[in-house]
Write a structure and sequence with these properties.
InterPro entries: Stress/Tellurium_Resist (IPR051324), TerD (IPR003325)
Largest sheet: 7 strands, mixed
Organism: Nocardia acididurans
Distance between the termini: 63 Å
Number of helices: 2
CATH class of the largest domain: Mainly Beta
Strand order of the largest sheet: 1-11-10-3-8-7-6
Helix content: under 10%
Number of strands: 28
Order of helices and strands: EEEEEEEEEEEEEHEEEEEEEEEEEEEEEH
Protein name: TerD family protein
Shape: elongated
Strand content: 35-45%
CATH topology of the largest domain: Lipoxygenase-1
Length: about 450
């Protein structure tokens, strides 16, 4: 028979191989931290989770109808490891254990016989909990019911145990003071209750790299070199004349015939049709598929949570972000249709609606990006695309498909921006990767794309 543990209680483990599993009423992940006597990992290899499913003596294995389980071979655990802590993390960052029935953690032997059972009670606002730990005591192994919740988030938990967490790159200090911000809604940024963390200490929501915006004195954006002309590329034109170096293709209008423009990285189109009609209401559909993985877990998709969002800029200054935690811009011109947690299924995974007629005159750029909340990279994502759709007819007008993945957790997919000559809206395909897991981390890094 199994023994029911209460918080703080322990019991002996008299077998060499154990499995820790979880019964829970919400989507969740299980992970393990292998720590020494000082409560720290020796290196990041001692952290076993969905993106690193194997560690010294510990492996994640599939469990039907719930999160993966931790399979522990106690003789294979290195002698320096004093404790193996089993962690439950809710998939939905907006959820917490106070909203669901208390989960149950079980310790079984290799044959499936339950040795210990612990109902993890007493949690409220936490979304992460150390449920159980298997630990050494006087040469023998024991199990303890822990039930320690973390409200500070997954990064706070693993950092406390010595795991390194990548931070977004610091923005370079601007070379000149930015101009006064154009009129915009009051209340600070990010808006109260937006739900995503502010940038790391020392960062600001400011342009990256020091490029002066167009309305600074003495220039029209990025100033030309002395003399006013950029030097010709080596070898052009060839001696004795000949052809001039090729320039960028002119921006084209969208076909009026219902055809789709297939964009390459860096290409642009005007948001007007060849018949002269201007677009006023558009949809930006973004989609992706998780890469299927094989191996010991079988042929199934990685559980990847990608989020589409759009940052609104006035010149180089961010004024609003529309994302899963704030589904509408403050002015109502941009609306997010909701979060897709898996990327499963055909068609758009997330859709953002844009009413071009309602965008305030000081807003010059809408930058569409996708971030990976759990830290998966775009090497684990297939068929990522964004497409521009006529909001009136639902006809697809332009599409950009990402050509290959990158080892980054965020992707600037495309931008809509006002052309300085005539104020015509245009779309440009970007396809540039960078490191960020949510919009709050991404925003300080977006200046280079604007």
């Amino acid at each position: 028979m199994s023994a029911a543990l209460v918080k703080g209680q322990n019991g002996p483990v008299n077998v060499n191989d154990v499995v820790i599993s979880v019964e829970i009423a919400a989507p969740a992940d299980i992970s393990a931290l292998l720590v020494t006597e000082n409560g720290k990992v020796r290196s990041d290899a001692d952290f076993v989770f969905f993106n690193q499913p194997s560690g010294p003596g510990v492996n994640l294995q599939p469990a039907p109808g719930g999160p993966a389980a931790l399979a522990i071979s106690l003789p294979a655990v290195p002698a320096e490891i004093a404790q193996i802590r089993a962690v439950i993390t809710l998939d939905d960052p907006g959820n917490n254990f106070g909203r669901i029935p208390a989960p149950t953690a079980r310790v079984s032997d290799a044959g499936g016989n339950v040795l210990f059972e612990y109902r993890v009670e007493g949690l409220s606002s936490e979304s992460i909990v150390i449920a159980l730990e298997v630990y050494r005591r006087q040469g023998a192994w024991k199990v303890r019911a822990v039930g320690q919740g973390y409200a500070g988030g997954f990064a706070a938990l693993v950092t406390d145990h010595g795991v390194r967490v990548d931070q977004p790159a610091q923005s370079a200090a601007p070379q000149q003071a930015p101009p006064p911000a154009p009129p915009q809604p009051t209340g600070g940024y990010p808006p109260p209750g937006a739900g995503y963390p502010p940038p790391a200490p020392g960062q600001q929501y400011a342009p990256t790299g020091g490029y002066p915006p167009p309305n600074q004195p003495g220039g029209q954006g990025y100033p030309p070199p002395p003399g006013g002309q950029y030097p010709p590329q080596a070898g052009y034109p060839p001696a004795g004349g000949g052809f001039a170096p090729p320039g960028p293709a002119p921006d084209r209008d969208l076909p009026a015939s219902g055809q789709t423009v297939s964009l390459l990285k860096g290409q642009r189109v005007n948001l007007r049709k060849e018949d002269g009609n201007q677009l006023t209401y558009v949809k930006m559909g973004l989609g992706w598929d998780p890469v299927k993985r094989g191996g010991m877990f079988g042929n199934r998709a990685v559980d990847i949570d990608l989020d589409a969002s759009v940052a609104m800029f006035a010149d180089m200054n961010p004024v609003d972000v529309v994302y899963y935690g704030s589904l509408s811009s403050k002015d109502g011109s941009v609306r997010h249709q909701g979060d897709n947690l898996t990327g499963e299924g055909a068609g758009d995974d997330e859709v953002i609606l844009v009413d071009l007629t309602r965008i305030p005159s000081h807003v010059t750029t809408l930058l569409f990006m996708v971030t990976s909340y759990k830290g998966h990279t775009f090497q684990q994502v297939a068929n990522a695309f964004c497409r521009l759709v006529d909001g009136g007819s639902n006809a697809e007008l332009a599409r950009y498909t990402l050509d290959g993945g990158t080892p980054t957790t965020a992707m600037a997919m495309a931008k809509l921006y006002r052309d300085g000559q005539g104020g015509v809206w245009k779309m440009e395909a970007l396809g540039e990767g960078f490191q960020a897991k949510h919009p709050g981390e991404a925003l300080p890094q977006l200046g280079r794309f604007v």
